[in-house]
Amino acid sequence: MNPRTIILLAAALAFAPLLLAQSDPPPPATATFVAAGVNAGDTWTEQASYGSSFTITIDDSWRDVSGRIPQPTTTVSISRTKVVKVTSARENDTITGMEVTYTAASAGGTPISSVVGKTYVLVINGNNVGSVTYAGTTTATPTGEEVAFVTADNAHFGQIRAMNKTLGGKTVAVGQNVRAFDPDDLINTADGMSVRNFVMTLRSVDAGGQTATFDVTMELVGRMKKGKGQNDPDTPFDLSDALEMTLGGSLTVRTTTSRITSLSISGPTTLRGRKLASGKAGKHDQVKMDGSGNASIDVSYTY
Questions:
Q1: Are the beta carbons of 293 and 268 closer than 8 angstroms?
Q2: How far is CA 160 from the centre of its chain?
Q3: Residues 211, 218: contact at Cβ < 8 Å?
Q4: How far apart are CA 213 and CA 180, in angstroms?
Q5: Strands 239-254 and 211-224
Q6: How far apart are alpha carbons 55 and 72 in whole angstroms?
Q7: Scanning 78, 171, 238, 281, which has its CA 20 to 30 A from the CA of 53?
Q8: DSSP 159-187
Q9: pTM
Q10: Exposed/middle/buried for 178, CB within 10 Å: 0-12, 13-18, 19+?
Q11: Distance CA 298, CA 263 (A)
């Protein structure tokens, strides 16, 4: 070995400990979460896209297989960006009022011009919107289309309270499972849906310990109860415990506030229903309804 090679090798060995010492430290194996309450004046920007694709088939039980009637596939795709300001809150991190300004909104790629650029005042009852009015001194009232969109799009503000209860003040290890205390606060349960199961598994923590990433699994079930006179052939389908969604994906949480910064989940959806119908010779036969499809939700929050 020539002298030059020996000198270079010696220099490399001399600096190796320094290079190793300057390498990035391993990411934390745990995440510690701080419970941060919600207060009047809190604001954040929320960008989201959510949608579903669903196909339903109806089967008359008294007909043969050719009697199956495939229904068109229904596709829903919503994207929107809004700025949220909490105007009132009470104990236990419960939001009771807020202002929402839409900077962008579209359905199926078509702009929803009726809400873009407008600010709405919302009165919140639990997870549900009690009323929707325009902000400011105008005496005009929102249209039915506006109220329907704003109401449906703002029915999950119990999530701050739910995440505080679930993570606030706790230390979670990578690989550990965490279950939400109030999972129904995480979604809109006003339409007969409820959370049957919601599990978060801590996957990783960033080097600064500021952001925790969870793998999430969420099971939703419809509980549209059979109404009075359900055995009458003219009543709607009985959909008790028939609508099911199994969604999986990832969730990121800021450890210093226990607030969600992003959520991305998707998965299959199934629907089963039945009702009586007038059949041959005046007999009541059963009509079955089956559906299947997919749903997805992608949301990011900037506080």
A1: yes
A2: 13
A3: no
A4: 15
A5: antiparallel
A6: 6
A7: 238
A8: HHHHHHHHHTT-EEETT-EEE-SSGGGGS
A9: 0.77
A10: middle
A11: 6
Q: What is the C-alpha separation between 104 and 121, in angstroms, rounded?
A: 17
- Rounded-to-10 torsion of CA 85, 88, 93, 95: -70
Q: How far is the C-alpha of 249 from the C-alpha of 263, rounded, in Å?
A: 8
* Angle made by CA atoms 114, 54, 128, in degrees to the nearest 5: 50
Expressed in angstroms, the distance from the first to the final Cα of the chain is 61
Q: What is the DSSP pairing of strand 284-302 with strand 259-278?
A: antiparallel
Q: What is the DSSP letter of 287?
A: E
Structure tokens at 255: 């450890």
Q: How far apart are CA 271 and CA 233, in angstroms?
A: 20
Torsion 82-85-91-93 (CA) sign:
positive
Cα torsion at 25, 30, 34, 35 (round to 10°)? 150
Beta-carbon count within 10 A of 7 CB: 10
For residue 7 the two structure tokens come to: 């000198």
Provide CB contacts within 8 A for 114, sequence distance 6+: 143, 145, 146, 149
In 3D space, the residue among 182, 112, 199 whose CA is nearest the CA of residue 147 turns out to be 112
Q: How many CB atoms lie within 10 A of CB 62?
A: 14
Contact criterion met (CB below 8 Å) for 201 and 251: no
